[in-house]
Amino acid sequence: MDVFFKHKDIYGFAVLAIIIVILPVFVESKYYFIVLNVIGLNTIVVVGLNLLIGFAGQISLGHAAFYGLGSYFSGILTVNYGFPLWPAMLVGMLATGIIAYLIGYPSLRLRGHYLVMATLGFGIIVNILMGELEHFTGGHDGLIGIPQLAIGGLTFDNDLKNFYLIWGFVFLSMLAARNLINSRVGRALRAVHGSETAANSLGINTADYKVKVFVLSAMFASISGSLYAHYITFISPSSYDFYYSIQVVTMVIVGGMGSLWGSLFGAGVLTFISEALHVAKQYHVIAYGVFLCLVLVFLPEGILVGFYNFFLRRKARKLIKRDEHLNIL
Amino acid sequence: MKKRSLIIVAVALTISFMLGSSLCYSAGPIKIAGIFALTGRAAHIGTSQRDAVMLTIDEVNQQGGINGRMLEMVMEDTESNPTKAVMALKKVLESEDVVAIIGPTLTGTAMAMRGFIEKEKIPTFMHSGGDVILFAPLDKKDPKSLPKWTFKSPYKAADAMGKICQYMSKHGIKKIGFIYSNEGFGKDGLRNVKVQAPKYGVKIVAQEAFQPKDVDMTAQLTRINAKGVDGIIAWTVGPAMGIIAKNVKQLGIKAPLFECHGAGDPIFWKVAGEAGEGVMMPSTKIVVGDQLPDSDVQKKKIINYVKAYQKKFNHEPGTMVAYGADAAFIVVNAIKKVGPDRAKIRDAIENTKGYVGLSGIYNISPKDHNGLSMEDIVMIKATKGGWKLLQ
Fold first, then answer.
1. Nearest residue on chain A to B212, judged by CA atoms?
2. What is the predicted ipTM?
3. Are residues B139 and B34 both part of a single domain?
4. Using the beta-carbon criterion (under 8 Å), do B184 and A131 form an inter-chain contact?
């Protein structure tokens, strides 16, 4: 409980919880709910990926695969083998973690960006397997009839119920990420990100921490994938292609690397904008590209972090101006 | 006294408001949603389907709409992505007065939308090629749980394959090689050819796969040719259609080449160039309308539609255009018959009998939500940048 209240950002979590609880009062449309739910699903993936990118300084281009593994483990176990829902999700999460460990262990021992290559290849292989292992996955026609999640007698069978379910998980995953960042492990990770050599000299096993964070971020993606499968009740390989991996990396960058709230912001803004730009008919793809370019050129640290730094600088400049006559600068 | 007059005024106002609003309501447009792959990997198919649908809707509106009410299309883009397709579906359902949906383009997006369509109870006429959207049960445990609200306008892929095999057996082609792209569409073709070929006494002696983005298939074709085949079927869409045609010519393979039912499109000539000459394929009659015998009931309709299409878009329609136009026509006819009511429109579509469309004659029934048969498909041959009807 000590860690819990020590930091100011706990107020942020209180506000988030209140917003999640009362938002459905103001939203009536099913369409906005599905947009919010997709934002929620993306946020869980992005929070995990941001731990990897922002704290361990490693990029993964294979998160679509981990997201897909969650979906397919949940889907295959429940549809083909009649597994109970929640244990299937747990099995998916653990199996994805083990697979991530097997990829991360060799590639993160090397210096440099070998993880990018490993995950890039892995993502494409998994996507092909989804289509080829027809007997299990239903092939390119997809896996149909995935049951909806349920607790006791409550089935999550509409957009509103799924909203509470998905955003409940968003809240928990953000809280977990925050506690991790503020713990001994988090401090070690930041040290690794700052300077790997310095961290090493202080007795931090850098490779070990990087692998752990990679496994954790894969598990986050897997949970999100399971929720997606049970929400849409149909999965097919095209939802987990290379493009999705790129999309989540973009969300991390646009929101702000290493910023927890930036993850939520990045997933929210990009999901929302790509929908809102549909008013531009088929030109929405171009508009989206222009938007991303503008962000990367003018706010390279990400929108949230960028604006925050901008205001910090302005405040600093004001202070300097105020104190100029004192001639101490 | 004063109070009573106030009440009268209030009542009169209320009545006039009610009348006014109901009048406004009946004069407002009838909304139909179009959900297509306008961007993403299937954009070239989605946009031409959208054009075909819009042409039909504009035509109805020029003739004064339905009972004085205009038709309004609400367009949404699936980006060729299943999740986005479900989002688009929910978006169009926001408006209570959308009475039917036309689209989507890709089988994957259709499969994702299917469950939600059944739940929301809105009649949907799809353009997707895969037969699974009609025949895969909604609940795996109950094989009878077939979709009630979903229809599809393109003829069944199994029938297209059957048509090729029928043509082959008629022309003495006995041993064939099958080459397919290693993804959903190609694999569906492989399943179909294994069922259809034996029916017509055609033997598959070689089967080869390639990746959808491969740029050379000479290796696979050489292996097929070595088996001494008298015919080759290639099952793929996109640039690979052209590459295979070119490779066959380069290798000097004498066996005739057959391609899939998506090839009968101007795009085929763009990707195949001169090598396209002589390739045969099943198609809707729309690309060979003027060559049909005068006794063909579809002829007049096809010629008129093609004229209108050329006038508006300045190019020849491809085989896919027919699917979009037919779906729109059938939905509009259903609305004309029963008015803008989702459940009644569904029943009217399901009872469409003997409707003469561009793709064929639709006999839709509760058991068959497509309604076309093998008789509606024709075999065509690519000749001099155009198409020749085969007998």
1. A128
2. 0.85
3. yes
4. yes
Residues B83, A239: C-beta atoms closer than 8 Å = yes
**CATH number, domain with residue B56:** 3.40.50.2300
**Residues B131, B172 within the same domain:** no
Assess if residue B227 is contained within a domain: yes
Same domain, B184 and B265: yes
- Give the amino acid at A268: G
Number of domains in chain A: 1
- DSSP secondary structure, A267-326, as one string: HHHHHHHHHHGGGGGGGHHHHHHHHHHHHHHH-TT-HHHHHHHHHHHHHHHHHHHHTGGG
Residue range(s) defining the domain that contains residue B86 = 26-154+308-373
Same domain, B102 and B179: no
Tally of structural domains, chain B: 2
Same domain, B162 and B145: no
Give me A117's structure tokens. 């290559």
Token pair 């055609």 is found at B202
Interface test with B, best of A238, A279, A283 (most B CBs within 10 A): A238
B→A contacts (Cβ < 8 Å), by residue, are 38-39, 43, 47, 75-77, 80-83, 86-87, 90-91, 93-94, 107-108, 111-112, 114-115, 130, 132, 136-141, 183-185, 187-188
Please name which of A12, A1, A43, A9 lies closest in space to residue A168, comparing C-alpha atoms.
A43
B122 & B52 share domain: yes
Say if A319 falls within a structural domain. Answer: no
In a domain, B261, yes or no: yes
Integer angstrom CA distances of residue B358 from B296, B303, B308, B346:
12, 10, 13, 21
pLDDT 10s per residue in chain A (329 long)? 334 445 567 888 999 999 999 999 888 888 999 999 999 999 999 999 999 998 888 899 999 999 999 999 999 999 999 999 999 999 999 999 999 999 999 988 877 778 999 999 999 999 999 988 989 998 888 898 899 999 988 999 889 999 999 999 999 999 999 999 888 888 888 888 888 888 888 888 888 999 999 999 999 999 999 999 999 999 999 899 999 999 999 999 999 988 899 999 999 999 999 888 888 777 888 888 898 899 888 888 888 888 888 888 888 888 888 777 666 54
Burial class (CB in 10 A: 0-12, 13-18, 19+), A67: buried
Comparing alpha-carbon positions, the chain A residue that sits nearest to B89 is A31
Q: Is residue A223 part of a domain?
A: yes
- CA–CA gap between residue B102 and residue A313 (Å, rounded): 54
- Whether residue B110 sits in one domain with residue B178: no
**Partners of residue B33 on adjacent β-strands:** B74, B101
Same domain, B138 and B168: no
Number of residue pairs across A and B with CB atoms under 8 Å? 88
Whole-angstrom distance, CA of residue B253 vs CA of residue B225: 7
Residue A314 lies in a domain: no
- Cβ A236–B108 below 8 Å, yes or no? yes
Q: Which residues in chain A have Cβ-Cβ distances shorter than 8 Å to B142?
A: none
Q: What is the pLDDT of residues B30-78, one digit of tens each?
A: 999 999 999 887 888 888 899 999 999 999 999 988 888 999 999 999 9
Give domain status of residue B381, yes or no: no
**Chain A residues with CB-CB distance to B136 below 8 A:** 141, 144
User: What type of residue is B159?
Assistant: D
A289 touches chain B (CB under 8 A): no
Residue A300 included in any domain = no
